[in-house]
């Protein structure tokens, strides 16, 4: 199953294709900003039953580089089969479209990035034939953006920095700068940034900080993450109220009852239980008819 961090690492380039040239310049590769961008089909399957699919494929046009293809792969861990797949992707795209084809790999940890940027040859050392050497983006070479003004100047780059540094010690400062930068940003611009960042953090501890920052700094947004946070907040408050009512009434709250209450995250169900807790002779009877 494809994970949210995996999707965020490459889809941010679909959201802002110019991000590629800005990231390339950070890496010391002079690339002009594209003036025309086309999101290409990612399915590279041939007539044979073997399915091959690149994560993101863009056709970019710029005055200096001309027209070329950019294949972007999100790589979460070392995979010995990947270099052969990358070689296939680039060769297939070059053959099909007859355009220069570049490969960029986005990673979230230094070990995977170091592994991905190695040159891998398909032939013998004295006859390498095809050599795969992707341009790798990760926490080892993207800036740590902790200045809200800098984050505001390039929200997509700041988001990618947050995604690639998700497990790094500086992630808290990055997220705080990004949330501050979004405070005065129009909702239609901020919404995808909020979502990409949430997806990119995945289940890492930093996700809790981001959710809190969104809830406080960006409380007026209507994105799904902010709605989830508000629902969780309402549920948490009703859980506390429900347990307090049962305690104040002197009712015995067994471990099973407490567990069932704390495991419920539906504010409406908790509201029903809370209303029953006011008169129920036993704690277990708040669950009647359920």
Low-pLDDT runs of 5+ residues are none
- The secondary-structure element order is HHEEEHEHEEEHHHHHHHH
Share of residues in helices? 40-55%
Report the count of strand segments.
Answer: 7
What are the main properties of this structure?
alpha/beta, 290 residues, 5-stranded mixed beta sheet, Transposase, YhgA-like
Concise synopsis of the structure shown:
The chain has 290 residues and is α/β, with parallel strands linked by helices.
How would you describe the overall organization of this protein?
The protein has 290 residues and is α/β, with parallel strands linked by helices. The protein has 3 domains: 4-137, no CATH class; 148-222, no CATH class; 230-287. The protein has 12 helices and 7 strands. The strands form 2 sheets. The chain has a 5-stranded mixed β-sheet. The mean pLDDT is 85.
